[in-house]
Amino acid sequence: MALDQKNIQGDIWPRLPKKSEIFLFCEITNSAKFKEKLSGFSKHLTSAHDAQQILSEISRRKTNGELGPDDIIDAMAVNLACSAKGLKKLEKEDQGDDVFRKGMYNDMVVEGLDREAEWHGEFKGRVVTEEAVQDFVIKVLNPTFKNAPDRSVKYMFAQTGVVLQHECEHFGWADVVSQPLIKGLDKPSSEKLAPPPVKPGIMIVGAEADTANHPAWAKDGSFMVFRRSKQLVPESIQWVTETFKPQATNEKGELMMGALSCLSSRLMGRWRDVVSLEQKPHAYDVMNDVATLMKSNDFDFKDNDDLDDTHAIVRRGIPYGPQTQRTETLSGISMHDRGLLFVSYQSNLRHGFRYMQKEWSNKFSHPAGKDKNYGGAQPGLDPIIGQWAEGDEENNYANVPRLDDPRKLEKIKLERIVIAEGGECFFTSSFSGIKDLCK
Ligand code: HEM
C-alpha cells in the first residue's frame, strides 16, 4: 500500500530543508494537560507532504533563476519526537524495540564504549543517572520561535545546529549526501552509482519489510537517534599529518599535500567532494580492492532485489559550533566547541544506528572477509567514529592501504577525534499516532 505522505513527519522523509535548526528538549510535567496541548500543536508539525512542497518551491525558484546558490527561502518547519520515558508518561509503554526502551545512556555508556565522564549532564538525567531526563524533543528549522512556557511542559535545554559553508561537516567533507532512496517514496535515481534503494519498512514502521512487532498506533513513525558528537578538528589535522608524513614526503623532503589528502580520504571513505572511493579510485586502487575504510557502508552500489538493506539508515544531522580558524589549525588545539548533531531514522534501532556503531564501526574484524586480501590482517576500527575501551591499546588501530602500494597495509594507531557527548533515542510518530497519544 502506498505510504500516506500527509501522515509521516517530514524530517523522516523527504527531509526538512535547513540552514539552521534548534532541538528543544523538554520534560512532560502534566501528562493530561500535555495531551491536550499536543493535540492542538500537531497542526504546526511539518509532514512529508509539506516538506515536499517546500523542496519543490526551492527547486522551482532555482530553475527560474530566482534563487542564487547563497540565497535562502524563508521557511519554518517543525517536527516532534518522544523518548521512551516521555511515551511512558503518555501510557504508551512498548514500542517493540528493546534498544529504544533501554535509552541511549544505558545502551551506549553502561553497555557501550561511550565514556561516562564525557557525556554532558543534561543527557544523563538529574537524579538517577540511569534515566535520561528529556521526554520529548521538538526540532525547529530556521527558528523564529517564541513560545510561552506552559505548565504541562518544562523546557530542559536546547542544542543548535547551523549548516556550514559548502554544506560540509567540520572535518571538511561534504556530508549527508549519500542517502538511501526509499522505494515507494523516492523516484529511482538515474545516477549510475547511487546507493541502492531500500524497502520503506527499513525506515518507516509498519511499511513493507518492517519485520519487528510494533504496536498499530506506531505505524508510519520512525525511531530517531540524536547524538552530540564533538569533533576535534585541529587535533585531527595534526594526527593525520604526523601519521602519514613518512608516506607523503617526497625525496626532496617536501610534504605532498595531494598524497596527504588521498590518505585522509581513505580514513573518511570518501573524497572531500563526497565522490566515493569506489566511484573514483586512486590510480593505484583500480587494480586492488577499494581502499576505503568507511565501515558504515555495506553495499556494493548495484541495485538488486536481494540486497540486504537491513542496516540502512537515513541521516539528517547538522553541524554545531564555528568553522575552524587558521590560528586553531596552526596551534593543533581546539579553542571552540564544535561537532555534529548526528540524527538518523530507522524502523529498528538494533539493526540501524546501533548496528553501525557497535557491530561495524567498533569491530576490528568488520567487514568480514577483507582480511583475505591482506594476508589475514583485519581492517581495524572505523578511524572516524570507531570506539575502543579506555586503555585498550590492542584494539586501537586501523589498517590503511599504503599509498605507494595499496596491496600493503600500514597499521596506524587511532586518535579520539570524535567524542560522543550524549544523546537519546526518540520516536517520531505519525500524525495518526499523535492523535492516539493524545487520547
Ligand atoms: C562526527 C561524526 C561523523 C562525521 C564527521 C561523519 C562524516 C561522514 C561523511 C563525511 C560521510 C560521507 C558523506 C555522505 O555520504 O554523506 C559520511 C557518511 C556516512 N556516515 Fe557518517 N559521520 C559521523 C558520524 C556517523 C555515525 C555516528 C554514523 C552511524 C553510526 C554514521 C553513518 C554514516 C553512513 C551510513 C554514511 C553513508 C555511507 C555511504 O553511503 O557510503 N556517521 N559520514
Automatic annotation (TrEMBL):
Q: Which InterPro entries match?
A: Dimeric_a/b-barrel, DyP_N, Dyp_perox_C, Dyp_peroxidase
Could you list this entry's UniProt keywords, alphabetically sorted. Heme, Iron, Metal-binding, Oxidoreductase, Peroxidase, Signal
A GO cellular component term found in this entry reads: cytosol
Q: Does the keyword Signal feature in the UniProt annotation?
A: yes
Q: Which residues form the Dyp-type peroxidase C-terminal domain?
A: 309-361
Cofactor(s) needed: heme b
Residue ranges of domain DyP dimeric alpha+beta barrel in the record: 7-126
Q: Give me the segments passing through the membrane.
A: none
Signal peptide range in chain numbering: none
List the molecular function annotations (GO) for this entry. heme binding; metal ion binding; peroxidase activity
Q: Which family does it belong to?
A: Belongs to the DyP-type peroxidase family.
Protein name, entry field: Dyp-type peroxidase
